[in-house]
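Subject: Protein record for review, amino acid sequence with backbone structure tokens
How to read it: Take the token row as a discrete description of the fold.
Enclosed: The protein record, placed directly beneath this head.
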Amino acid sequence: MKNLKISVAQVASIKGNVEANIRAHIKAIDKASKLGVTYIVFPELSLTGYEPKLAKDLAFTKDDTRLKPLIDSAINKNITLGVGAPIASKGLPKIGLIIISPSGSIDIYEKIHLHSGEDKFFSKGSHHNVLTMSNTKIANAICADTNNTVHAKTCYELGTSIYIAGVLITEGGYDADTAVMHSYARKYNMLVAMANHNQPTGNWKPIGKSAMWTNTGLLASATESQHALVVAEKLDDTWSGQVFEL
């Protein structure tokens, strides 16, 4: 069995251009596969960009044919993917993480906690999502979920030791938001990881700096503008981290 390696991908998304964004995802997936990554997670709404006004028209379903290149990549590269996308729902779409396994099966996590104003375009999810890899439970989160202490606490109580999120964080929110993530790593002895956008999307200017923390502090972080993978590897119960340019 290969060592457990977790990666967050810091990439840019082109407004509404799903085809181009999938190509960028596959480039990152190919790199992650060569590094032996087990699970790679992308930023919030990475397949479409953070474009609330476009979300309903671009929303995905589990059997969406647009996912085929990503499904093929997961199967061929033997890697699990977590890609951000709006999810079709009765009424307003949901902000989702589409999880594609190496067998090609699909699961979806839907963001439970919305930022102020998102409820105009999106509805809330209601169920937590936990994956098991190499006897390790991994909890998924999306952006504002990480600001809600109940979300992380619930994931911990479900037995998770990795908490990973696709986000959109700007310069103004970065210090406060990442301090909360670091606090979860300390309090729950978790690996906490977040994938942020590195270029403007919607009306926002994300600051990049995708990062990972353990209970001892920052493990690894990308810069503001890097196209990069931040990778954590677990050996003998100890995490090490590296950043790899894309």
The radius of gyration is 16 Å. Helices lie at 18-34, 55-58, 68-77, 149-157, 171-188. The chain has five helices and 13 strands. The first helix runs from residue 18 to 34.
